[in-house]
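tmp note - Zinc ribbon domain-containing protein
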Amino acid sequence: MLPRSPYSVRPCTACGEPLQATPGATVLACRSCGTELYGRPDKRRLQDPDWIALPPKPTMRYADDTPEALTAPEAIVPFGIRPATAKRILRRWAQRPWWTPRDFRRIDESESFRGAYLPFWVWRARTRSRYKAARGEYEWSQGGGGRVRGVKWFPAAGAVDRDFAAVPIPATVRLEGTALAELARDWSLGDAVAFEPRMLDGYWTQGYELGPEVGLELAKARMAAEVEREVRARVGGDEQHVPSIETVYAELGYRLVLLPVWLVSYGHRGRRRMVAVHGESGRVVGERPCSAVRLAFATALMLAVAGAIQYFGF
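out:
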């Protein structure tokens, strides 16, 4: 299910930079901080023919936050970090640096602490990309003000074949895009096992908010970025101009995989914030609040030390 509001030009929810919308796009990515914003596609937007060709998936009711039948998970990655361990990791993380607020240092005792499974679309595809490009090589000549650099261009063309075995795409907007990207770095999809509903007992399970069609759009964008990097490496030279890459997808498929995380929320300056502990690696992702009093004291102390050093000539 996608958010109801259509896209418009708006500031990034994380850093405030303006996001430029592309007609028909369902995903906006902030160029400054990487946060992704999602919206409902235009009703007149043409559907991806690769998506239309895919067979439908079975559905079932399993999410705690919606009674609706959703695409059934095909795999799940079990928790490798136990609750007590996750709480110890949280406490150590919350106590550094020392100017975090006193209450925040006990975040591991919060009643909001819970194990959860986050939904990810994991895509696979074999791609063949034909490209037309130009290789630029620097050449130097003597000008009136000294040496002048020019670029001599040579045509280049070819094809790149890639095999993408697993491209994970978050299907949730409950955490910011940068936090999800940090978490996604550590999940071992090879540890996934076949999904069984009983494995959700005792954990909160979130239904996906971004459908698989949006997931395909994002997955193709990530595949395209990797293909372009390889094209530029093949073209070589000092600069590359790549105006055209045409990609065909084969053996395209996806599955919904549930990935483990320990979640806890806290309030700061009138806003609820979320901290996550990776359910396999123990990586903590979140934003530490800052105590204004402690930070002011630390600043005053540093200024006093700097003043003493200058006064006594150390």
